[in-house]
Amino acid sequence: MRIACVFLAATLLLSPHPISAKEFSISHQWMAAVDARDRAARVFVHEVQARLPEISFQIHPQLSLKMKAEEQFDALQSGKLAMSVYPLPYAAKKAPEFSLAVLPGLFRSVDAARALKNSKVSDRLQAIANANGVHILAWWWVAGGFVTRNREIAGPETVKGLRLRSGDSLFDLMLGRAGAIPVDLKSNELYSAMQADQLDGALTSYETFVSEKLYEHAKYFTAGSPSIWMFANPLLISKSIWDSLSEAEREVFEAAADIAEAYFVATQNDAEKRFIKTFTQAGAKYHRFTSEEYLAWLRFAQQTAWKEYFALSPTTESMLLEVVQTMLDDAGAK
């Protein structure tokens, strides 16, 4: 018996993977197997488990853990929740710098937003995330536009008097200065608000517009580049849990996140095409911003939302200027 115990102990010590299993919960607000954010999370899980089979995951779509969207960030900070696909600007009250991830007009396309990866700005955002108890594993950017019931949106003057939902306080500030009436709603409340004539239009991602079936109420929509609405939905992990991983485990998580990010990028062109096709077939009119309309929005955003962002913290002005410089450098290199 003693010999058997010694042999078992030696086997455990020599095992290439730790025997103790680890389980991670991943929470998010989107539909399972339909939205690319859920599918990319499953790609991440598959890639980790292919390399570390002793680690298991439970994905909880559509906020099935019964916590509100914003509460996921609190749960990440405390370590109660391991991971989340999280709309970064939702945490702007705790880290004002995160509003950069949806600042109106800043990113005219998803490709422009992706230029931030591995830049000084992304390093600074990672440091801010770490200081706030989370770690960014992957940057997932989604494009979106306007969907409205009663008026086509072109320049800033065309939103006057409309009740609009943007999902961000700085975006709301800009819309309000343009004469719109900002409405604070979650994405899963948009359909019922339009149906009840409590909302004239909204800005959100292409996939959310389709999954929430807003084409049943929409008469007009915008899509394509140039756009004034881009939103970062990164894959986050609790910093305390990230710190508890071994160096080898972190490397696996990062490699899996890179593969999932590449997968996610490939889904977004299809998401835009599906959005345009679905809404057009439902009878809605498609409008793509002209260069003049985009520049009008950009100038208006700089006078309103950007100006407010500058004043949020000692670091926001320099971060915004770094983003602009990064995009100029990227454009010059192409």
Instruction: Note the beta-strand portion.
Output: 15-25%
CATH architecture: 3-Layer(aba) Sandwich
Q: Low-confidence parts lasting 5 or more residues at pLDDT below 50?
A: 1-20
First-to-last CA distance: 70 Å
* Largest beta-sheet details: 7 strands, mixed
Q: What is this entry, summarized?
A:
With about 325 residues, this protein is α/β, with parallel strands linked by helices. It contains twelve helices and twelve strands. The longest helix is centred in the last third of the chain and has 35 residues, at about 245-280.
Characterization of the model:
This protein is α/β, with parallel strands linked by helices and 334 residues long. Strands 5, 6, 7, 8, 9, 10 and 12 form a seven-stranded mixed beta sheet that branches. Strands 2-1-3-11-4 form a five-stranded mixed beta sheet, sandwiched between helices. It has twelve helices and twelve strands. Strand 6 (163-165), helix 6 (169-177) and strand 7 (181-182) form a beta-alpha-beta unit. The protein has a single domain, classed as Bacterial extracellular solute-binding protein, family 7 (D-Maltodextrin-Binding Protein, domain 2, 3-Layer(aba) Sandwich). Mean pLDDT is 92; it is low at 1-20. The protein has helices at residues 2-14, 36-51, 71-78, 110-114, 120-131, 169-177, 190-195, 206-211, 239-244, 247-281, 291-310, 316-333; strands at 22-27, 55-60, 83-85, 134-138, 141-148, 163-165, 181-182, 201-205, 220-222, 230-232, 235-238, 285-287. Helix 2 runs antiparallel to helix 10 and helix 6 (169-177) crosses helix 11. The longest helix is centred in the last third of the chain and has 35 residues, at 247-281.
